[in-house]
Specification:
The protein is α/β, with parallel strands linked by helices. The chain has two domains: 7-247, Aldolase class I (TIM Barrel, Alpha-Beta Barrel); 256-328, Non-ribosomal Peptide Synthetase Peptidyl Carrier Protein, Chain A (Orthogonal Bundle), CATH 1.10.1200. Helix content is 46%, strand content 14%. The chain is built from 15 helices and ten strands. It has an eight-stranded parallel β-sheet. Strand 7 (138-143), helix 7 (153-163) and strand 8 form a beta-alpha-beta unit. It is globular, with a radius of gyration of 20 Å.
């Protein structure tokens, strides 16, 4: 599969952009564990054109992350044009437009999934970004529609292709569903069978295991699969899925030691990237997933949450002995 000049393997696996999750440390971890392409958190176009330190920091990256994309969102064409130029100047591998975020504070500003209610606005926004970005491919991530009665994803895809968008990711839910209910993969199959549609289609929604990734590829014919919440605390899902796609065999689940060591590695990267205070804070949302399913994982997580500096957390993670730890707490 290719996105313009970006060469990807057959059945590529993408890390979804997720607010307060897909920062540079997490992207590096996921690339190390087999994600073929990763994305920044979605970044406000208004913040970018105002040189917001937070927004600019969200764009910062390490060369180990390549190929990676910067995702932007906004409700004004002028702001999206300026933000696209700022994003391109950071030298990502691609620039992605968010037309799918269902959060009220985003939609209320005419951004994200709000564009699903107004195809003319979506066309103007996408065209503005494509025209502004001169040296990188522009891609789009969206949803099926605003609600069940407004699903026009095939029409949307053909319109975006005509504008020069090089790939389209579709979260197979409507905006009204948000993250509830089941993703409707039937629409992904219909989309892939759309006459005249040639750009790659990446499927997203409810892929939380290697088996489900393979099922999406097999049942819908999508060119790539994007994994979001299934990767939080479980970056192994990418290498597990690649192995399963190539061999039909499932790799063993990571051991407790492997889980704790990778969590520690992400903590170190987080502190290096964000500074100790915020680097420790942002990691707190990852502990629960790294420890999910292990005996007394909740107790261990609560112990980790007690600390606001890195060293005592690393001490617990790297020297953890279950029988000793719970004998003294």
């Amino acid at each position: 599969m290719k996105i313009e000049n970006i060469e990807l393997p057959k059945h590529p696996l993408f890390l979804a952009p997720m607010e307060d999750v897909t920062d540079s440390p997490f992207r590096r971890i996921c690339r190390k564990k087999g994600a073929d392409i990763v994305f920044t958190e979605f970044i406000s176009s208004e913040a970018l054109i105002r040189d917001s330190d937070i927004a600019l920091h969200k764009m910062s990256f390490d060369e180990q992350e390549r190929p990676f994309g910067i995702q932007i969102f906004g409700g004004r064409e002028e702001a999206m044009e300026g933000a696209a130029k700022v994003a391109e100047s950071s030298n990502p591998d691609l620039v992605d437009i968010n037309f799918g975020c269902p959060v009220y504070k985003v939609v209320n500003k005419g951004a994200g999934a709000a564009c699903l209610k107004d195809m003319d606005m979506m066309e103007r926004m996408a065209g503005t970004v494509v025209d502004a970005v001169k040296t990188k491919p522009v891609t789009v991530k969206t949803r099926l529609g605003w609600d069940d009665s407004t699903i026009r994803i095939q029409e949307v895809a053909l319109m975006l292709q005509k504008l020069g968008v090089k790939a389209l990711t579709v979260h197979a839910r409507t905006r009204c569903q948000k993250y509830k209910g089941e993703a409707d993969w039937n629409w992904l199959k219909k989309l892939k069978n759309t006459p005249g549609l040639e750009i790659p289609i990446i499927g997203n929604g409810d892929v939380t295991s290697p088996e489900l990734a393979k099922k999406m590829f097999d049942e819908t014919g999508v060119d790539g699969v994007m994994i979001g919440r299934g990767a939080i605390g479980n970056p192994w899902i990418f290498e597990q899925t690649r192995h399963y796609l190539e061999t039909g065999e499932l790799l063993p689940e990571p051991t407790l030691k492997e889980r704790l060591e990778l969590c520690a590695e992400q903590l170190r990267l987080s502190v290096d990237h964000q500074g100790e205070r915020y680097g420790v804070i942002i990691m707190k949302k990852h502990y629960g997933q790294y420890l999910k399913g292990i005996r007394n994982g909740k107790k261990l997580r609560m112990k980790l949450m007690e600390h606001d500096t890195m060293d005592p957390i690393l001490e617990i993670l790297l020297n953890y002995k279950e029988e000793e730890f719970f004998a003294v707490v």
